[in-house]
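pinned: reference chain
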Amino acid sequence: MRNIRPAGALLMALALGLAAAAYAASWLQKQSASNTLQVIVAERDLQMGTRLQPDMLQTLAWPKAAAIQDPLTTLDQAVGRVIHMPVLRGEPLLQSKLAPVGEKGGLSSVLEPGQRAVTVKVNEIMGVAGFALPGNFVDVMVNTPDSLNQPVSKIVIERIKVLAVAQDVSTNESKPRVVNAVTLQVSPQQAEQIDLARSVGTLSLVLRSHSDNIPVQTAGARKLDLLPQVAAAVVVATAAKAAPPRPRAARPAPTTPATPVAPSAPEPARFEVIRGLSLSQE
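pinned: its structure tokens
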């Protein structure tokens, strides 16, 4: 009997320990549940325009201290929706990253409200040698004759977002590649300007920094701007041709030499002669 009592006490102590551990685990779980929120995150990197499927998503406990705005909390809220921006692995899915319900996906799902998509044909030079990737910003430049039928290059639209290159909307690329078409996000008025510009001249794309938001006003570049010395000579020649001719000074009329006058002969001397009562001169 003396050997049984210590064994019973040990079992009782072990049971109390297990109960205490279970209570502590339950308490910690409740505390953890009250401090976290179940959110839906991406299982892998997702490109914009992707329609979400269950195998692309997972549920994760997110700490409430690191608050996020409008997260998705259930799979039903996410499955079938289209994302309009890239989502990285482990990144929470937010309502602001999803296209409206019913969107079929593709390029139309990444367009901002009130914007349009227009595709511009380019070559390896016009396409900034392939460096214009989705998500970049470009300026649109046109080369066309001016009112004097002289060629001029002018930036007509600034800071346009590139949506896709050769029908690819992935922004995960970092290497340049030559494409034959670039799709841009523009306003309706800018779409009209681009359509007119490519009908009257040649379009080019100028890559722009993401942080550059300052508008630039230029007069355009002309042929004379490339050769300033030739331009100065042309201006001088044009001014000389347009200047009125100077009036010539009138030459004095030739004078006829005067005919010399012969000296008159001296008059003969006259004498008064008195004869009687008459007086005469001889």
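why pinned: The CA atoms of residues 81 and 102 lie 7 Å apart. The chain has a mean pLDDT of 78.
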